[in-house]
Fold:
Amino acid sequence: MSKIWEAFENLQEIVYVVDAKKYDLVYMNQLARSTFNCPRTEDYRGRKCYELLQGLPKPCGFCSDARGKGIYTLKEKLIEQDGRTYRLGMAVDIAGQEEAERTLYTLLENEAIVNECLRRTLADEDSGEALEQLISYLGARLECDRAYIFEELRAGRICNTYEWCAPSVSPEKASFQYATWNTVEPWLSVFERDQCVVVEDVEGLKDINPQEYNWLKAQNTKTAVVCPLFDGGKLMGFCGVDNPPRERVRHISAMLQVIRHFIVILMKRRDKVRRLRHMSFHDPLTGVLNRYAMEEMIASQTVPRPLGVVYCDISGLKTINDSQGHAQGDQMILSASQLLAEHFPAGLVYRIGGDEFLAVCFDGSRESFQEQVDRLLEQLQKNNAHLAVGAVWSEEGSTRIKELARQAENEMYHNKQQYYLSRQQPQNAPCPGPGCARTKQPDRDPETPFQAFIHNNYYDAEAFFQSVAIPEAPYYLYFGDLQNNLYYISDNMRDDFGFPSNVVYDLIEKWGAMIGDPQDRILYQQDLRQMLEHKKDIHSLRYRVTDRRGYSVWVHCRGIIRWSEDRTTPLFFSGCVSRLESNFAMDATTGFLRERAALNELVTLSARNSPALVISFGLNHFTYINESKGRTEGDRILRDIANTLEEELGTMFTFYRLDGIRFMAISRRTNGWDPGEAVAGIRRIINLVYSRERITAKRTASFGVQSFPQGGRLPQEILENAITLINVAKLNLDLEYSEFSSDLIARQRERSNMALVLSESVEKGCEGFRVVVQPIVSRDSGEIIGGETLLRWRYMDQDVSPAVFIPLLEETQMIKVVGKWGFEQAVRICSRVIPCQPDFLLSFNVSYLQVLDDTFLPFMQQTLKESGLPGRHLMLELTETHFDEMPKRLHEFVNQCHEMGIKFALDDFGNGFSSLQMLFKYPVNVIKLDRTLMNQITHSPENLDFIMSIVYACHRSGKRVCVEGVETEDELAAVRQTDCDMIQGFYFYRPIEAGEFYRCIGADRPV
Structure:
């Protein structure tokens, strides 16, 4: 069979070739041989076409029909081949063409629907919204009356969770909420077999299954397709469509069998997001909302509305925990949360600290809110509950919740103080105010238990103070005489903040000087001034202070002031300063605040409507640093970078550590920042530390820049965009930084969707991947002497550029799995070629992550052993980009490859920061000159001389040279002047499929 006719061999049309002058048949494809009963070549070759095809004794004058079963239309074309003229004929059976076209149209339409459903599954980040859109699309596209999803939300109970109805159809979703599975009992046996319920005509059920018939008729259902939804073998619900066109029912059944997997994926993703959100915004012990939920609620309030705030504190919780155990303390916390939820059913209850709760009541009236508070206080007194309460109301309080919460907190502490003072009064004395929940005291003992104990027993005040102010405690204690301005502080406060003595003169002023943030310092001074001006008893404020090591520490300072009887003179001030590392999750390695603190800062900026510059950055190649130097040394380098950033830029930025080795810097100034200068300042410090540690990298860090609030409406958006911008910058190392734009974020999200599908492909044994080969030819003869295997991957029925999916594989470490698969394919291809061309050399590409993978070399050895292929026929290619980042590991890797006989090629030489030292620093066998050099050697004799000198140097050191990217005659002529050894480029061959490559090996000729 002539190779030129091979392309027609498996076509589903009759194809034959005739000598135009002699009328001799020279070729018939498989269908033609079958149709005319000529199974062997000798059965037709040399026979006259008019005899075999037409049954005529002489040449026909029209050649318009081919004899055989059916009706055919004939197309013919004259072809010149090897100096002879041939007539190529193609006969198409048109008898069943119309039915085939209808079937084909239906299949293509079904495929388009499935692909669109997949696209919608991946496109929308909101899985619940994606399910709504998916069901709406299916219902409309399939021309149904109704499309729906039912889910088992409680044990044995199913709900219609999603529904689409045609314009003229009434919704039925409300009728199917928490129904039992018995509602669809006739379908359960079908579902158990993992099959669809298919109703092509409801009338056919009338005698077979009257129950199902009556149920469907009641819903005006004539046709239906219902498909079960399984997760891990468990029936979790079903999806379906009512009244699709009868002729499409069977096709829809097959289609839903595929689409249901998309629905299950979306349902699981939706449920996971819901669980994560619930965990993120609810207290695990009580189930009420937490501080993060409160911050989000505060950020969402932009329109003034009436608001009541109740601040509650559990009295004596620490004593209960110490004396009766934490289980009893937890029971107190649960009781408090349940009590608040009972009395404020229309509000929101938050646990904002270990013993603190906040209830927020929107709208309503002051009178109704006060009634709720009064009922709560009555219940507290009745139960003798240990709960102090403060409550405030404002007609426009929704936009200043934090201020109201502080007022309520102060009110609560005032009531708490009055309560303890009242315990010294006779039992019939009036209660001092709201929030008082006191116990009955004996008439004979006006003293508090604490006072009575001190009065009647030995008491050492200094020993007591030292016992509660232990060095490792997460708080500091202080008290002082306000008239003498002299204070006593705990040992740990003295040591951690560098005070020379426990006795400190003018502590308030000295402490204020340690508050580094100007805005925090202003808040601190304002709060103290208001305490004195308004005769307040309580001080409560959160801010940052700088300890003696220079670290910025978040604290919550609380204190109580005692006044003279006429409340004209402040006498005594005492309290504690609590470290907030646990609340804000300060990073132990860098000393930076963590992600939650960054969100809190953005919430604050949003509330103040303050603009800010937000810079995100990730350290590059830190995985290698940890693996090569050890994690302890890696942490030391991180601390060095963090300390230097704080020292040089801490007054201008607040730094936060996000996940992994990604960070964020938020400007302290509100304007005047040049993003380029800010990025350059941070990069300079990172470069300095990398250089000091002798770590070489083309880019030490990747940066993203956005302006708040332009970069997002919510703080969470800013945080998500920050990470996205880092990822974009890592893919574009030539960029100084990536700057926020909506289009950029959208493209990156599409890339994330692609990564999800890519991961599924890898998990399914590299499904969707394939290997193509680009031949490499001899410079002189143009004959194929080798090739390079290249990875390809299909996504949404299109080939994705390796420049897109290879970085994704590297970022997710999946390149380790795919790289092994690619090596297996290279071995398989080479093993097939060697018998035909014994000197053949096939190269394969290796990622730097594969070099770091301890399992890759043993895998290569085992694969070669099982295949029997000598390693000398293979050559690994590695780009120079990462060479200096892992010199020792690379040497070891290449040497072990040489032991297996595998050669080593330096790829893309001349692209980027090439150095001639590369040619001699590493044990390279072949240098591959990059395509970018082509433009240089074809336009300048000087550049050609330079390239020739590189080739000469390589030859002198025993290295061969391959020139890549040769596409034109001029380029070929120039390249041949360089005296290189091999050429690779589109002028000779593009990357081709393996099957085509095999055919080329047996048919290549000199150019």
Summary: The chain has a mean pLDDT of 81. The radius of gyration is 40 Å.
